[in-house]
Amino acid sequence: MTKYQEYLQNYDGEPMRIMEVCGTHTAAISHCGIHSILSPKIKLISGPGCPVCVTVTAYIDRLVELALTPGCVVVSFGDLLRVRGSSRSLNDAKALGGQVRMVYTPMDTLKLAAAEPDKTFIFAAVGFETTAPVYAMLLEEALRAGIQNIRLLTSLKTMPPVIDWVCANQGGIDGFLAPGHVSVITGSEIFRPLAERYSIPFVVSGFEPEQILLSLYALVKCRGMGKALNLYPSVVTPGGNHTAQQSVKKYFMPCDASWRGMGLIPGSGLCLRPEYQQFDSGSVALTEDHDANPACCCAKVLTGAIGPRQCPLFGKVCTPQSPQGACMVSTEGSCYQYYVNKRE
Ligand code: SF4
């Protein structure tokens, strides 16, 4: 047992509520059982870091509508296909004859669009700072190759504004395990203003069990301090990846964005710049949001107000085989992770 593990196991100080913002951290913690070795005084709470989970109903509805429009093809990552909008998912649209293609990277859209120039290929551009550079690369390459039948339906989001929202509206968080992948692009310093404003420590962490344990140890030790630490220096720098930041800046600009369960958060999204509007598939004003099943508590789970098991549908009618909400669909969703790893 490492000294960090021993400390976290025997901790008997002030109760700590630590939010792991990133879906990949939720998955790593659940998979390795880190939550189960912590002192009862340390609670881990999953946050709004799963891009599929935070996508609002109106966005899914718009994708379904596009998939059913003659001449249009919706291109998406696999997770999103199973999320239900008001009444249908993209998989449902496909079953009705809609055009939907699943890809592993947005760059695959180039080949699809070049092969069928008579159709319009709309990429479901969800994600955070990590994914935005890939969409910028897609547009760069489409322009270079003269491919004109690619569009984006953007639902891109950025982390600091939503963490700010959680601190201001939800409260009760004593430390943040800051997202490792996002930090590769943004840099670790992006969290310092939030740490100082709310006097809460932020620790950028890797995804290996020892890295997570060390980061949790640092968070507990820094309780009440407005510090931003980078404990993932092998890939995260204070200023982040400038090349990626510049390429995102070239095509996208900040905008207000709607988050499931949180509503419209000013400046929390990225949309296409006016000079690249030819790539936009009508992304603006997609604000309507409600859970497809009225009893689903995704909105509360995403903000850390309740844990997945407190949802009355968890494990009964809602399972990965029959998901009732987005948090049970994505492998990064907290309900999915709590279910498959039997996390309490
Ligand atoms: Fe929604 Fe299912 Fe999670 Fe309940 S268990 S919050 S229904 S996804």
Please identify the top-level CATH class of the largest domain.
Answer: Alpha Beta
Spatial sequence of strands, sheet with the most strands: 4-3-5-6-11-10
Oligomerization state: single chain
Number of strands: 11
Total number of distinct structural domains: 2
Quick check: average pLDDT? 93
Explain how this protein is built:
The longest helix is centred in the middle third of the chain and has 14 residues, at 132-145. The protein is an alpha/beta fold and 344 residues long. The chain has two domains: 1-293, HypD, alpha/beta domain 2 (Rossmann fold), CATH 3.40.50; 298-340, no CATH class. The chain is built from 13 helices and eleven strands. Helix content is 34%, strand content 19%. Helix 1 crosses helix 10 (209-221) and helix 6 packs across helix 11. Iron/sulfur cluster binds next to helix 12. The site of iron/sulfur cluster (SF4) has 15 residues, from helix 12.
Task: Summarize this entry quickly.
About 35% of the residues lie in helices and about 20% in strands. It contains 13 helices and eleven strands.
Helices, strands, pairings?
Layout: H1 3-10, E1 16-22, H2 23-32, E2 42-49, H3 57-67, E3 72-76, H4 90-95, E4 100-102, H5 108-115, E5 120-127, H6 132-145, E6 150-157, H7 159-170, E7 175-178, H8 180-186, H9 192-198, E8 202-204, H10 209-221, E9 228-230, H11 242-251, E10 252-259, E11 263-272, H12 298-302, H13 334-340
Parallel strand pairs: 1-2, 1-7, 3-4, 3-5, 5-6, 7-8, 8-9
Antiparallel strand pairs: 6-11, 10-11
Helix pairs in contact: 1-10, 6-11
